Structure formats: C-alpha cells, structure tokens
UniProtKB/TrEMBL annotation, chain A:
Belongs to the leucine-binding protein family. Residues 38-385 form the Leucine-binding protein domain. It comes from Micromonospora globbae. Keywords: Amino-acid transport, Signal, Transport. This is Amino acid ABC transporter substrate-binding protein. PANTHER family: ABC TRANSPORTER SUBSTRATE-BINDING PROTEIN, LEUCINE-SPECIFIC-BINDING PROTEIN.
TrEMBL record, chain B:
It comes from the Bacteria. This is Branched-chain amino acid ABC transporter permease. It is found in: Cell membrane. Signal peptide: none annotated. Keywords: Amino-acid transport, Cell membrane, Membrane, Transmembrane, Transmembrane helix, Transport. It is a multi-pass membrane protein. Belongs to the binding-protein-dependent transport system permease family. LivHM subfamily. It comes from Micromonospora globbae. InterPro entries: ABC_transp_permease, BCAA_transport_permease. The chain crosses the membrane at residues 6-25, 37-54, 66-87, 99-119, 139-163, 192-213, 225-253, 260-281. Its main location: membrane.
Amino acid sequence: MTTRMTTMRWATAFGATMVLALAGCSGGDDGGSSSDDPIVVGISLPLTGDFSEPGKGVQRGYQAWAKIVNDKGGLLGRQVELKILDDQSNADRVVSDYEQLIGQDQVDIVVGPFSTRLVVPAARVAEEYGMLFVEPAGAAKEVFEQGFKNLFYAAPAVADDHYNHLAEYILGLPAGQRPATAAYAAMDDPFAQGTAYGLKKKLEEGGVRTVVDEVYPPNTTDFSGIAAKIASSKADIVVGGSQYQDGVNLIVALQQLDYQPKLAAFSTAPTSPEFAAAIGNKTEGILAPTGYTQKAPYPSNVEFVEKYTAQFGSPPEEDEANAYTTGQVVAAAVTAVGCAEQGECQQKLVDWVRNNTVETVVGPLSWDATGKPQGAHMIQQWVGGEIQIVLPADAKETDIVYPKPAW
Amino acid sequence: MSSGTLIFQSVVLGVLLGGLYALLASGLTLYFGIMRVVMIAHSAFLILAAYLAWWSHTRLGVDPLLSLVVTVPLFFGAGVLLQRLLLSRLRPATLTMMSVLLTFAIAVVIEGLLGYAFTGTQRRIQLGYGAANLELFGARIAVVKLIAFGLAAVALLTLYLLLKKTTFGWSLRATIQHRDAARLVGIDTDRVAGYGFGIGLATAAVGGTALALDTTIYPSLHWHWIGPLMAIIVVGGLGSVPGAAAAAMLLGLTQSLLQIPLNTTWAQTIFYLALFATLAFRPQGFFGGRLAQRF
C-alpha cells in the first residue's frame, strides 16, 4: 500500500516536472528574445515574524538596488522588477515561496532571503531548478557544508574570517610588542562564537597563549564572574565574541575591575549607534570587525550611500548593504554573460560568478568552490571618540592605536 | 595573578550578587506567603521599574535613585489594586494554579507595553560613576554594585522591621500563618492581604532600580530572572522572607565561586540543582518556612 502510494507520488512529481520543464523551455524561447520585458527578480523575505526588522532592511536594500539600476537604464536594456513574497520568518514557507517564484511565476533570477535558517532551505530549491543563488545573509559555516554548487554569499567574509586583518596585524608586530597571552569570552551562538574562535585559532598558531576561554549562554546578564577570571589572568589582550548587550555588560564589568589590556576586540556591540552612551563613553581603543560601513571608500559605496539616503531619508546599515551587494553581484554576472532567464543561461551565470571578482560596496568579492567569500572584514577602532576604519591599510581612515590607551 | 585574589574577588562579587538576589526574591516569597499566589509577573514589574529609572534618568535627568520617590508609592498602589481587583476574585480552590495563568498574562502585557513604549532596543543607564571602583584587600568593588547592595540591605531591613515591630506587620504575619485564626481575632485579612501585596510590589520598585544601575535592560529580560528567583524562594522556604534572603545569599555566593572551576553555563545550573535537591529532600525549604509543609 505504502509502496504503491509512493510510486504514484513519484510518477505525479515526474509528470509535473516534465510539464514544468517543457513550459520553461517554451517560455525561455520567446520571453528571452524580447528586449522590452522586464527582468523579474524573485525574492522571499521575512517581512513579518521574528526576522521582520532585518527582513525589511534587506527589502530596502533590494529596492534601492533596483531603483539605481533602473535609473541608469536597467540591465541589458531591460528594466529590473522585484517580486517579493513574505515568508513570515518560516522555513517551511520559504520553500514553497521559491517553488512558486521559479515554477509558477517564471521569474528570471532569484536572490536569497534573510537569516541562515532560511537561506539553506531556499538554496536547496534554487539548486534543484539549477538557478544561480546569490544571498545576502547566512554567514554560518553550515551554509557552505551542504554541497551547494549555485550558492554565493554576497558579503566579505564568514564569521570565522571576520578578524583576519587583525590576526595578520597582531602576528606581524615585532617580537617585543607582540602580545603573549590572550583571553577569550564568547556567547554560545554560532555567529558570535565563530568570530572569536576564528581569531583564537590563528593567534594560537602564531604562538599567542590562551589563558582564559569562556563560553556563556545567550541569556547571561551578570558578567562579573567572567570579568574576574579575565582580570585575574592579566591577559595581554581580550577578545569578545559578542552580540550587543553581552558585549556592553562584559566591557563595563572589566572596567569595574580596572583591567587594562593592550588590545580589546569585540564583535557587533562596538559598531552599534548606542554603544558609546551605553558604556559611558569609555570607548577609547576598542576594536570591532565590520562587514559594512557607510564610510568605506569603494566607489560604488559612495554612490549607494548618497542615493539610498535620498530614497529612504537615512543612510543604509549592514542589512541594506548586504542586499545591495547581492544585487551588484547579479548585475555584474548578467551584464557580462548577456542573458537573464531560466534555463541554460543560469549555469553560465554561475560559472561567471565562480571565476570572477566583483567590485561591490563592501569591496572586491570572490568565492571558493562552496560559495564562501574569500575576503575578511574591515577592522574599526574607537579613536578620538568616534569609530574609524583602521585595517586593512588600503581602506583605513586613521592608524590603529596599539597598545590601547586605558579605558 | 594568584588564585587567592581571584577567590576573594569572587567572594566579594558573590556577596554583592546575593544581596541583589535577596531583594529581588523578597517580594516573590511575600506574595506566596500572603495569598498562595505564584506571581510570575514579579520580574516583569522589576523590569518595568528599571525602565522607569532609566527613563527618568535619560529624559528628566534625575539620578535613578530619585525615581524611587515616585515608583515605590506607585507600585504599592498598583499592588493593592492588583490584589483587590484581580487576584482576590480567583476561586480559593484553584488559586495557586490560576494565579500562575493570570500573572503570566500580566507579565506578557507589561512586556508588550514596554516594547511598545520604549522599543526592543537594549538600554543602559549611563552614570558618571558607572565604572568607578574601590579597592579592598586586592579585590575591586564597583561603586554601582555597592549602591545596589546598599539599596537591598536598606529595603530588606525596612521590610523586616515592618513585619516584626508594627501592628500592621503582626497582622500581616498572622494572615500568613493562619488566615482563619487571624480573622477570628478581628484582623481584616482581605485588606491586610491587599497591603501586603502592595509591599511586595514596592520591593519590586526598589529591586528594579537597583538592577537598572548595572545591567542592560530590554522588555523580555524578565524571563531570565523569574526562574532563578523561583528557585531561591523554594530553597528558602515559600513565604519566608529571611529564608529567601539566606538562600539568595548562599546561591549567589555559590554561583560566583563555581564560575572559577566551571564555566558560566554550568555555574547557572546551581539554582536548578538546588531546586531539585530541595524538592526531593526537604520540600518545606532549608531556611524557615514552616508554612510550606502544609502543601
């Protein structure tokens, strides 16, 4: 009974696929040649539910990209049209959304949704249909362990590589100045922990001894115990794999114990607009990796910030920039290959992205075979009361301050 | 560098933490004593008080401690109303169970309103003395933690004197010990219960302000607090304020010291281990709390 049901289901699925494939072929024949049709870009985003805040940011980024491209005459002479569905932050829904976009709505291009949790199921659908899948979120390493061949993450680096520029800088210091010991405290979260442990691995290989290695649960509110351990170890440098409130609380707890490291690096928290006020302006010398800053000197970024601000009234943040970067990668591939439709064209687009470097608002991007970006994050530091880019050398606004002044 | 200093530092931090726990848990145990009510919304009121302290500091520019002048009477009034208008209407037979549901709903409403009024952005009071510290035999004591501890000590001492030395305190304790007997000797137990509830909520105003001095606050923070606070009042003996204070001090100190050999995740589990041990071996609690024997 069960076997027969399964067979029937397979037969139906096969039949449906054949019909779709035929429909796809005929659609491609007359749709692709017409130069008046818009290029329809299909996206599913969490516009409601848990991820609605970042989801809307990503949506604004895509909208800004479409507008800027269209104002310049579109791609291949065709206007770009976005088709956005709301997945309600639900992983089951995201699958049916992409099935609908590709199968039923016959969009020409698909790009990724928001958050790692939703990127993986969405990428699986795109992969089945052989579609190019550039995505703006999903920095966790699991995304690149699924064997996807069409996926590309449109950001400078995955979590483990965020601190690469800083690791290079520290290990490049002359022997007398180089720190000997390091303390690490990371939230039990794949992203936050990834940043701290990426740096830890490189520094340990370079001979910097780990004296404290603490992992705390996301709901931790009291950091005095962790701070006491770090302060008592007198580690030369302290690295925090933090989100926001944990980073702030840990820094204050360390200051309360009068711990003065030579270098202090924390992910996420220091780049937040409320950070300085939250820790009472004792920010001097604190470092943070950043995937995007409005001040980055790349030419397309200057244009993006200006036009985005004109369109939405406030400058773009990281979510918006990641979506815009995704659009830039797709646009570069479409322009270079000269096509944008379902079918054979998609494989050409994938091959092009795989073998080329794309100039974006977050710098030049290139990818390895799993779609993992090959770059590193810029490093910012609080210098003179504001956060400024200090690494890498070609993007810096000011020189890195080491050892850091007392906080 | 020596681990002796680290241990001493951890003891100091543990005592400061324990004092804060004692203040935060005192109201919770009082509600249970007075009415057999499990007040899930207690920690939500703590966060509400913390937000009011933050708001009066950032918007009005007054020291967060001054906000107590307004929040303590306000919370007292809210407590009386809450008891008279809502909790006293629950049927006595199912009071404990239903109070969980009712106060759960209140907690969610408070969280929602905080999110609506102040957004989900994490806030922190910025004090000139936020990172100031004193040195004591090699250990560092943060001034804000000391202030929070002082607040806790004053509030708990006041509560103790109120319960032990005043006529109202006597009638409140009589109501806790035996409601029917108290009524027989002429105590208006309904009114006393209302005021008792108000006092419990007033401790939340003080506790929330103490909490706001040294932590980042956000609307859903209360869920992180209710578990440990519940564990404290069970270990201390439900309904016993001195018991809760002793348990809070002990658990705070143990948590702080356990962080040295273990990590933060495991050090936090001490609350739940203590809870299991108490329920398994001494359900009436380890400190005082004859009351809970009847359950």
